[in-house]
TrEMBL record:
Keyword field contains Hydrolase: yes
Residue ranges of every copy of the AB hydrolase-1 domain listed in the record: 23-248
Name this polypeptide is given: Alpha/beta fold hydrolase
Domain of life, per lineage: Bacteria
UniProt-recorded Gene Ontology molecular function terms: hydrolase activity
Native source species: Histidinibacterium aquaticum
The organism's taxonomic lineage, starting at the top: Bacteria, Pseudomonadati, Pseudomonadota, Alphaproteobacteria, Rhodobacterales
The keyword Hydrolase is annotated on this UniProt entry: yes
Xref: InterPro entries: AB_hydrolase_1, AB_hydrolase_fold, AB_hydrolase_sf
Keywords annotated in UniProt: Hydrolase
């Protein structure tokens, strides 16, 4: 599917798969990734859904407009993509920054969505969390995105997975390296202002929180608390998975999706 131009003037890369006329599901990527991070889930989903995935602004083949970005910007992008493709309502599957985008959508645009899946995500920025993003921004300003590839892989994938799957780790490294410095830094500013926890109790949609048991980026105890305060939430932990649980443990991740989405 070609890039599409939004009313805001930026162009985002989208891809549609699955049978015409099927219900829609939208997939939203994490920081430093692109729509290819969902390759291991598309076949499962396309048996039931018309699958719409996209590169968040600043990522993949989408434009990287001037920053800083906000989660309001990212939510508006998602709604504009839906409007462009004639999607009145969709289920939503997302991870990390994509899941944070989904939280904003569930709070502000519940009429456009059905079942939500938020994987490996925090919901509020603590002082320490903001400082971490400030440090990462400074690192990229000094050395480019390449300077954070190894650290990102250490969060995304467990050591055991990297040793057993060097080809996957190499592919992930290439995706991170392919993210523009400008887009990555602009997205970091959205993450350092993260502030959805106070509104999770207002979400009326059903939500599945998925968390890698070894996720150091969004620890299980934080996601358990998010699920506790979200009225219609379920929580499933994926054993032996790091921050990208869908890549670390695709079978367990897909089984959780299949059960929740009646696939």
């Amino acid at each position: 599917m070609p890039r599409i131009e939004l009313p805001s003037g930026i162009a985002l890369n989208t891809r549609i798969e699955g049978p015409e006329g099927a219900p829609w599901v939208m997939l939203s990527n994490s920081l430093g990734a692109d729509l290819s991070m969902w390759d291991g889930q598309v076949d499962l989903l396309a048996g039931k859904y018309r699958v719409l995935r996209y590169d968040q602004r600043g990522h993949g083949q989408s434009d990287a407009p001037d920053g800083p970005y906000s989660f309001e910007d990212l939510a508006e992008d998602a709604i504009a993509i839906m409007d462009h493709h004639g999607v009145d309502k969709a289920d939503w599957i997302s991870l990390s920054m994509g899941a944070m985008t989904g939280m904003g959508l569930a709070i502000d645009h519940p009429e456009r969505f059905g079942r939500m899946v938020f994987a490996d995500a925090r919901s509020v920025a603590t002082d320490a969390y903001r400082q971490m993003w400030d440090q990462r921004i400074a690192t990229i300003q000094d050395g480019g995105v390449g300077a954070v590839v190894e650290g990102s892989l250490g969060l995304w994938l467990t050591d055991e997975f990297r040793e057993a799957n060097p080809d996957v780790a190499e592919a992930c490294a290439k995706i991170i390296s392919g993210t523009s410095d400008k887009g990555y830094i602009a997205s970091c500013y959205a993450l350092r202002e993260l502030n959805f926890f106070k509104d999770l109790d207002k979400i009326t949609l059903p939500v599945l929180y998925l968390c890698g048991g070894k996720d150091k980026g969004a620890p299980p105890e934080e996601m358990q608390e998010m699920a506790r305060v979200t009225p219609r939430a379920q929580y499933i932990e994926i054993p032996d998975a790091g921050h990208l649980a869908n890549i670390n443990q695709p079978r367990a991740f897909n089984e959780a999706l299949a059960s929740y989405l009646d696939l």
